[in-house]
Amino acid sequence: MPFIARQEPFVCDHCQADVAPLENGSYRNHCPKCLWSKHVDKDGPGDRASECKSLMKPVGVDYRKKKGWMIVHQCEACGKEIPNMTACDDDLTVLES
Ligand SMILES: [Zn+2]
Ligand SMILES: [Zn+2]
User: Which of 32, 56, 61, 68 is most buried by its number of CB atoms within 10 A?
Assistant: First the structure.
């Protein structure tokens, strides 16, 4: 069965913000307000193959030539780090404090 990225509103597990889907159709996998994510992807964005499902903390940003700025998330439970594309409404100032 082909994987289809779901565009659904969700409530952030970290700050309880209501998060709306992106209007430009990009896949959103983290909260734009606190930038926390959830460990649901195993090998790539959107595969939802991870059994972990723990909260992932934003630990930094990384610049990739092809993708632009990425937020690096680290899982609180297993320590895995995954870079994620930033969304247009992400509040990146939370990483500066
Ligand atoms: Zn949040
Ligand atoms: Zn994990």
Answer: 56
Ligand 1 centroid to Cα of residue 4, in Å, is 24
In the block, residue with structure tokens 């992807």: 41
Structure tokens at 65: 């030539």
Each residue of 78-88: pLDDT tens digit?
999 999 889 88
37 alpha carbon – ligand 2 mean position (Å): 11
Nearest bound ligand to the CA of residue 49: 2
Q: Take residue 34 and report the two structure tokens written for it.
A: 């606190």
Q: Which residues lie near ion ligand 1 (Cβ < 5 Å)?
A: 12, 14-15, 17, 31, 33-34
33-66 pLDDT per residue, tens? 999 999 998 887 778 899 999 999 999 999 999 9
Neighbouring CB atoms inside 10 A of 64's CB total 10
